[in-house]
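Entry type: protein chain
Record version: 2
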Amino acid sequence: MNIFKKNRFNNDCKRTMFYIVAALLFMLPFSYEISSLLLVAGWLVYIYKSVRGFFEWERTPFDFPIAIFVVISFLSVFVSPDPAFSFYNCYNLVGRYVLTYYLVVQSLNSKDIKQVRILPDKNKHIVRVALLEQVKILLYVMCLSLLIVIVYGFLQAFLGIGLTAEAMVWTDNAMFPGLKTRVFSTWQNPNLLGGYLDFVLGLLMGVFVVIKNKNVRIAVGILFCLAAFCLTLTYARGACISIAAVMAVYGALYNRRILIGLIFLAAVLLISDTALVERLTSVFTKLDTSSEMRLAFWESTIAMILDHPLLGIGWGAYFMVYPTYDYYMQGNFIKIVHAHNMYLNFMAEIGLFGFVSFMVYYFGIIYKAFKTQIANIEPLNKGVMLGIGLGMSALALNGLTDYVMFNTELSMLIWLFSGIAVILGKKSV
């Protein structure tokens, strides 16, 4: 095989991997099984390329904390009440997250980026780099996927399509008699949909703030308003308050016009839905059953952490250990799968060192995303980085009262965009 054919083969493989990543991004809100197959397909292409003599491995600044996180997660299996289950859960989830991250890193064009330059003609055409085109494709794919999620959420809210009797367990009729429906769209429950919308709202906001093209801003703004409306229909208090707080802080510090627009949008949404106002204000005025149970879970989880500080109780073993620390319900009639607090849940299951390694990775991505704002890079890439920072910050704040990232698809989405952030932070021009 001559050099020209070799290079074409290598580029074809990387292009195939990238389109698999795009398909994976699209399918995450809809199908666990298809997403899993796409992840496997992406790595099969990478292995085939490597076997043919084109082994490339893009290193990232977070390789070490991610490696520590993986090692400690697997070590925690040995202290689990059911090591076989924890091992299966660990390699199936942790492995899936890390493979998603590195598939993105290895797929995006980061080796042959040329400087953006302006051609000396009257039209001043900008020479676009391959990475920028890939980012555009991923944004288009994400927006299309998001639009489908939103439309299905509206169909649930206004026509009852897809709602079941089980969906009513997420409403507290005694505390909120006016709240009849909480939508979840293609996700498993309203809180997961709220977490997903938190992240994509942050991403849309970042693009809207930075991009100057009027038509793009209008399209992004409309999609943002639709997503915000869909978020209110989840009545997920933590998700609503988290994204509102993150955007309010950003607006107050960096963009007062954006802050005014957000306040207006929030006012319209609140005025149009008294049930939403009642549910949000309940956080500050009185305890409902949901808030009371969270406090009980946190008390139990802190006791787990104090008893198992090094390796925790075992990856995915929270539901098995919780009955021993059940100070609230005193019975096994309800399966409690997580602590409703991201930070306490990680500390409980994989110990303090595993928790620290994950936090270094997670907040390291947020730091890199915001730090890129001071760099002289292409506006779209800067907008995506800002959006990733805002979205992950909202999930971090939401993590104080919930743990939506126990969901496999949502976690894969965050690891996928983490890979994008790493490449943009290293290679953007």
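Comment: The chain has one domain: 3-297+311-427.
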